[in-house]
């Protein structure tokens, strides 16, 4: 797990991020989803680090990275704010240009990086996601039933109370046998910390407020991702079932889209790391 990689706490100006980094070759930033930390990438990093200099942070609000100050619109937990953290992180590691992959909530940060910083991002991979407003504009009863947490997490205080009352009940789908002992212990620390729970919920509140507005502005201005975009999705999750082929949706947001489904449940980096790592290696390793 993270063979030969360093674990650092790096000040990015707004606060301090916990970061695992190392390897050989061009820089590749990996961004985790909810409720994970950078530890979700442990097996992926070992596949990729012989070919890339891999950088895996805990996003602000998650894991052992800093907690931003609260605002009424959750803008300090926005994907734009998290993208700015990533830009500064990579600069402090010596990289002005890099590739990025994100899973779940981390894919929205990767998307925002590619939209806001086209001169910095060479390629982007989004895993198990479509843009936030594409979700919201396609809502049906199935989405309301199965993705209700998007809207519950938008409520003030109640989500934190529910999760903190029994974190293991809320996150009952976590499977330690798939994660590895060290990653599981790290995640247990995160979900039992009320400050981290709040930070993770604020990420969703930002999604329905400031992040949604940023995407609406992008669409109004005709902005698209200019670099190559890889869309991957877990075929035993429900993204394709709910919304159809994710590649078709991403083609409204990027000029060069490719992708495929992977035989996995939602946490693909843990459930099928070989297929995911090979997909990323082919995409980021090609010219």
UniProtKB/TrEMBL annotation:
**Signal among the record's keywords?**
no
Give the record's keywords alphabetically: Hydrolase
Where does the UniProt annotation place the signal sequence?
Answer: none
EC number from the UniProt entry: 3.8.1.3
What Gene Ontology terms describe where this protein resides (cellular component)?
membrane
Q: Which residues form the AB hydrolase-1 domain?
A: 26-150
Protein name, UniProt field: Haloacetate dehalogenase
What species does this protein belong to?
Rhizobium leucaenae
Lineage here is:
Bacteria, Pseudomonadati, Pseudomonadota, Alphaproteobacteria, Hyphomicrobiales
């Amino acid at each position: 797990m993270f063979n030969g990689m360093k674990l650092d706490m790096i000040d990015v100006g707004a606060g301090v991020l916990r970061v695992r980094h190392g390897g050989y070759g061009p820089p590749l930033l990996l961004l985790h989803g909810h409720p994970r930390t950078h530890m979700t990438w442990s097996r992926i990093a070992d596949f990729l680090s012989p070919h890339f200099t891999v950088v895996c942070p805990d996003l602000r609000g998650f894991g052992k990275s800093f907690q931003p100050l609260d605002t009424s619109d959750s803008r300090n937990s926005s994907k734009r704010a998290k993208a700015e953290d990533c830009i500064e992180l990579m600069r402090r590691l010596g990289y002005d240009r890099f590739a990025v992959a994100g899973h779940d909530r981390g894919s929205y940060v990767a998307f925002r990086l590619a939209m806001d910083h086209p001169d910095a991002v060479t390629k982007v991979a989004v895993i198990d996601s479509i843009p936030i407003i594409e979700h919201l504009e396609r809502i049906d009863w199935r989405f309301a039933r199965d993705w209700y947490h998007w809207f519950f997490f938008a409520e003030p205080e109640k989500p934190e109370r529910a999760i903190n009352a029994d974190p293991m009940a809320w996150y009952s789908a976590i499977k330690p046998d798939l994660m590895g002992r060290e990653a599981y212990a790290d995640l247990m620390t995160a979900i039992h910390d009320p400050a981290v729970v709040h930070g993770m919920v604020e990420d969703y509140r930002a999604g329905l407020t400031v992040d949604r507005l940023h995407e609406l502005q992008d669409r109004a201005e005709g902005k698209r991702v200019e670099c190559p975009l890889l869309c991957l999705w877990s075929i035993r999750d429900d993204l394709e079932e709910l919304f159809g082929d994710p590649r078709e949706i991403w083609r409204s947001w990027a000029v060069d889209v490719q992708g495929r489904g992977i035989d996995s449940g939602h946490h693909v980096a843990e459930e099928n790391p070989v297929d995911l790592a090979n997909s990323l290696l082919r995409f980021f390793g090609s010219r």
